[in-house]
Each structure stands twice: as structure tokens, then as C-alpha cells.
Amino acid sequence: MTNPTAQISCPSCGFLFNAEEALEKQLLAKLKAEYEAKAAKQAQLLASQRETLEKERQVLNQQRANQAAEIRKQLEQERGKLQQAAEGKAREELGQQVAALQQENKARREENLSLKQKEIELLRRENELKERQECQQLDMEKQLLEKQAEIEARARKSEQERLELRFKEYEKQLVDQKKLIEEMKRKAEQGSMQMQGEVQEIALEELLVSLFPFDGIAEVAKGVRGADVIQTVVNPLQQQCGKIIYESKRTKAFCNDWLGKLKADQLDQGAELAVIVTETMPSDMDRFGQKDGVWIANFQEIKSLAFVL
After folding, report:
1. Which domains can be identified in the chain, with CATH numbers?
2. What single-letter DSSP state applies at residue 8?
3. pTM for this structure?
């Protein structure tokens, strides 16, 4: 704020003004003039410095251009060298890459071949496994069929054996019945034959008694080993002259074993002669005669043979 006591008047016009403001304005004008002079000087200095800097910039740009040209030249030279080296290296690397690619291709081919072989081996194993599984399946089916056939065969065999046992039981019953019938028939025939044999023995004994009333005619008891009838020959002086044994047979077939048995009985009895009176003659004899030391005749011929003996 302006101090009112510091006002003074102009001697020429009497205008009142403040002394401090006047001093301040003068000071400001002086400072302004000094500042403007200094600013002009500074501007000249700056212009001179700017001109110097511009010249230095131009020199620097020229130097930079020269350096750039030199650098470009050196770069071109280096690029040529590098290009040659790079081309050589590239060719070398390319050769190495080609060799590596060839080696890689070879390795891949070998790997592909190995994979192909492994794939083929895998397919072969799969086929073998499949065939083995099919064979196992067929074997299992075959075993099941064989087992089923075996079970069926065993069942048929068991049923057949059961039927055979039943058949054998029936057959045995039939055989037993047949044997029983045959045994009954044999016993009946044996009884009949025994009766017929006994009848022939009695007839033989009666015939010998009637033909030789002075001889001893003895019947051998049933169940006693020996001939059926023993004739002891006696002469007119009542002396025993010898013995004749008789065996009576009334069967449908002649048995040669009778000869040996009767000869043994002949020795036991001490008889001189042995005679078989049979209804059936041996196959090689059609009339009475001697065979193996034993006389053989039928009942119709015994009368004549007894007189001869």
C-alpha cells in the first residue's frame, strides 16, 4: 500500500506523485533496461553459440557421414568376408545338415523298418495268439464234445450193462430152468435107463442060469465096484475051471472107456474073460467080436458067444 506522506509535487507542473512509486518505477525501468541489455547480450551469445553448435553439428554430421561411409565400406568388406565365410560355413553346415538329414533319414528308415518289423511281429503274435485262442476254443469245444460223448457213452454203457445184467439174469433163469428141466429129464431118463439096464442085467443073469445051470452065476450088488454078473465055470466033476465077468450096457452110444474099466475089474476078480453086453455097438464093429482084449456083443448075440467061450 502507498504511503501518503511520501508524496511530492512536480516543480514544473505542480503534479503530486508518490516518491516511493517514482523510485520504484525508475528502479524497474533500470532493471528492465539492464535485463533487456543482458538478454540481448545473452541472445547474441546464444546465437553465436548456436552458430558454433550448427557448425560443429555440420562437422559432426560430416564426420558421422564419413564414419558411416567408412563403416558401410568396412561392413561391406566384412559382409563379403562374412558372406564368403557364411557361404563356406553354410555349405559346410549344409553338408553337415544334408549328412545329418541323410543319417536321420537312414535312422528313420531303419526306425520305420524296425517299427514295421515290430508291427509285423506284433501282428504275427496277435495272429498266433488269435489262432492259439481259436485252437484253445476248438480244443475246449472238442474236449466238451468228447466229455459229452464220453458221458453219453458211459451212460449208454451203463444202461447197456444194466440191460445185459437183466438179460443175463433172464438168461440165467432160462438156463437154470433149462438145466432144471434137463436135470429132471436126465433123472427121469436115468431112472428109465437104469431100470432098462437093470432089466437087461436080470435078463442076462436069467439067460446065463438057463444056459449053464451047473455054473455059478452071481450078481454083483448095486454100489459095489466091479462087473454086473460073474460066471464061475464048473466042469462035470464040479471043479472050477475059470471066471467070466459080464458088464451090461443099455445106452444110446458106446463108450470106449468101458473097456479099460472092465479090464481093471477083470484083474480084480481074477477072471480069464471079460464080456460087454451092449445095446449099441462100437462104430467100428457091426457084430460081436473082441476089442482090446474084451469081448463085445449085443443081447441077441450073447447066447452064441457064451457057448463059444
Report:
1. 197-308 (3.40.1350)
2. E
3. 0.39
